[in-house]
Specification:
Blueprint: H1 13-16, H2 30-39
Length: about 55
Amino acid sequence: MGRTNRLAGVTSPYLLQHADNPVDWWPRSPEAFEEARRREVPVLLSVGHSACHWCQ
């Protein structure tokens, strides 16, 4: 079963850099929180930090 790339249509440069990651990312939305409630799982929220490879 393939996963849906929910980040493909976002405008955030931070989110777009993760659009091809092998993680089932969701942009912040009512649907994301409803899915977490339905599945009874926590929501892990990224604060959007990004740094170049020299800074890491």
